[in-house]
Amino acid sequence: MKKEQQLLEGFSPSPKDMIQVALDMPLERKIEKAIAVLKQYEGEALKLFSGGYWCCNSFGKDSGCIVELCKMADVKHECHHNLTTIDPPELIQFGKKHHKETVIDRSDRGHLILDAMPKKAIPPTRAGRWCCEVYKEHGGDGKVKVIGVRIEESARRAGLWKIVNKNIRGGLIVAPIAYWTEKDVWDFHKLRGLPYCSLYDEGFKRLGCVGCPLAGPKGQAHEFKRWPRFEKLWRMGFEKMWNENHGKPRETARICEFTADGKHPLNGIKKGEFIEEYGEQAYFDVRDGELDNPRIFDSGYLSGKLIGASRQRFFEKFRNADAFFDWWVSGGKWDDESGDDAGCVFDEMMRNV
Fold first, then answer.
1. CA distance 151 to 62
2. Burial 80-101, CB ≥16 within 10 A → b, else e
3. For residue 280, is pLDDT > 50?
4. How far apart are CA 242 and CA 315, in angstroms?
């Protein structure tokens, strides 16, 4: 009996059961389903964008599959690569050689490490990957995007992704290989004779930004050994971030006197500024001059006026930029004998994301 037919009659399959059935499906059947769904939503894609599907091409093995599937389905599409500025050079060279039809989109934020990070005053972390949101996730918003995400890669992806998903920023996201396994991906490459980046032959399982904290301390160490100039680049970025922000209070931290008069606006507060709670002072997240989720007390909403800035930035707890970088690549662990009071710095950092 085929695996997709092994669910017992009289029992309702759990989501986990259904996912496993989908993962166990033969590759030939998965290819048919992927092509069918691309054909099904082409009309919607053309309504939102004259170019059809916005195909997200990272130049990795999964992207190679979705680009080929779009061609096999004979649907109108445009391929786009979001340049993060810190991708492995071999990956970019491969993309320029084998995916010449792909448009390389560059962010207006400049270089991730040397421009965006100092301005953000916080490095990317496993819990706060602002870099992905800035450099990757907005491409194709308002259109029908095709992406190469696969749920096998993580439990989080299994809980979030389906083959067709609504994009909270507008449009749809189609993930035609959502239920493909890694073996399916490589078998598809062999079946279709697709080229792939040479870094996979060096043992890399996934290709992404060099130094990404998602790789973990061991992964980062491996990447920095393979591309030492990227470690130097990260250290330069930390130094620049430190020099531009060291000794300055957080501009997003404000103290406000208030009266509970039932009015919303806080005069003088601008988009993105924060007000913190200390005794008779309160915390607000302000967006576009309006209170976002203001705290409601028995006496009503709070309003008031700015009386000054407060609180130092989280990285002031470190001796210097190098100490901060060393902590960052350590995965957050810290030697108490180092003399740095960094025990709670991670929690503090997360409040700045």
1. 12
2. bbbebbbbbebbbebbeebbee
3. no
4. 8
Strands annotated E in 65-224: 77-83, 103-106, 144-146, 164-166, 172-174
Rounded CA gap, 173 and 156, in Å? 17
Separation of alpha carbons 294 and 349, rounded Å = 23
Model confidence pLDDT, tens digit, residues 301-330: 344 433 333 445 667 778 899 999 998 988
| Alpha carbon distance 166, 73 (integer Å) | 22
What pLDDT was estimated at residue 95? 97
Residue 25 Cα to chain centre, angstroms? 29
SS3 state at 274: strand
Give, as one character, the DSSP assignment of residue 12: P
Alpha carbons 290 and 271: distance in angstroms, whole number = 8
Helices and strands (H, E) in the chain, number of each type: 13, 11
Residue 285 three-state SS: strand
Q: 76: which residues sit within 8 A by CB, 6+ positions away? A: 42, 45, 46, 51, 52, 53
* H helix or E strand, kind and range, residue 284: strand 284-287
Give pTM, 2 decimals. Answer: 0.73
Tokens, residue 110: 């400049």
Contact by Cβ (8 Å): 172, 44: yes
In the predicted model, what is the mean pLDDT of the chain?
Answer: 76
**All structural domains of the chain:** 3-209 (3.40.50.620), 218-247+314-350 (no CATH), 253-309 (no CATH)
pLDDT, tens digit (0-9, with 9 covering 90-100), for 169-212? 889 999 999 999 999 999 999 999 999 999 999 999 889 899 99
pLDDT tens, position by position, 118-150: 988 888 887 777 888 888 888 888 999 999 999
Tokens of 54: 């916005």
Quote the percentage of the chain above a pLDDT of 70: 68
Q: What would the two tokens of residue 114 be?
A: 């040397």
Burial class (CB in 10 A: 0-12, 13-18, 19+), 228: exposed
